[in-house]
């Protein structure tokens, strides 16, 4: 629906922001969920004082990261939009900056509070937060972030002509709050280290997601492939959900045996064989199999929902479903394999996987999912599955 709004039609760089900002929930909220889940499981949130300390430090930390990464995502969107076309508009650049920073800040605030509630509730009900918190962060993150991005960018776009000063004011307001959040995060020992060392995965993940956004922008801008817009958040959301659960579970499993860099798992990790990742008797291998088997029924439910709500521009023919499912299965298979290697590799390098692995994995999920989906649409077009089947 949103792809037909004026702001998406006339400022197409907003499409580049979509995977980057939806990916932020992987970079920030799902990392927060994984970090707090591990803290809850190993008893670091049992007293009210410890709980309050973890909450304030982590909330301040994600506000810092959200503001900075939102600003960098807008710069990436401007550059990626400018290079292919050679057209630059300062008004559109400021609009993208204001929309991105405001969306990232507000979404992180809302989702962070929801995550804390979910993790505390899970502990009280005796449920492992690893299995619950990251999927809720991912799914709610997509919905809330996309709603905020579209609403804020639409509102700011309407103000461009009559009140041009509103856009730069929004940018300045959110960026001016940065020092406050930095001070709060620095005072907390649990988040001080991440404040200094946690930028590399978040920024690289944002860049990877922005490349996925460029693919989305180029594909959706072609009227023949307008139908891709409705499936992109679905395939990326499912892939990110499943791999985040797996990464969070492996990380908690490793934390049970000691600190990063300690124990038998600290030995240099080479690429595991696919058999050990998916077919061994190990507890993490069993969870990988379960998560992989969720792909087909999960996507069939989503496809049925999209079809029954008459969303998008694509008729769900058998050949389309086969191509779509192949892309989805391949995406999750690759992500679960990479997660098995990456989490253990980071642990052996004395890096906490809760802080470093999920941003990379969800960003790769966005890139692989968008790339495979675009490839599927192009192949379907080439073999003659056209008109109402692929494009409107």
TrEMBL record:
Domain SLC41A/MgtE integral membrane: residue ranges: 18-152, 232-375
Keywords: Ion transport, Magnesium, Membrane, Transmembrane, Transmembrane helix, Transport
Membrane topology field: Multi-pass membrane protein
One Pfam family named in its UniProt record: MgtE
GO CC list: plasma membrane
Gene3D superfamilies given in the database record: SLC41 divalent cation transporters, integral membrane domain
GO biological process: metal ion transport
SUPFAM superfamilies noted in UniProt: MgtE membrane domain-like
MF annotations from Gene Ontology: inorganic cation transmembrane transporter activity; monoatomic cation transmembrane transporter activity
Residues in the signal sequence: none
Subcellular localization(s) per the UniProt record: Membrane
Main location: membrane
InterPro entries cross-referenced by the UniProt entry: SLC41_membr_dom, SLC41_membr_dom_sf, SLC41A1-3
Transmembrane segments: 59-81, 93-120, 132-152, 164-184, 196-216, 288-306, 318-338, 358-383
Similarity comment: Belongs to the SLC41A transporter family.
Task performed by this protein: Acts as a magnesium transporter.
Listed name of the protein: Solute carrier family 41 member
Native source organism of the sequence: Malurus elegans
Gene: Slc41a1
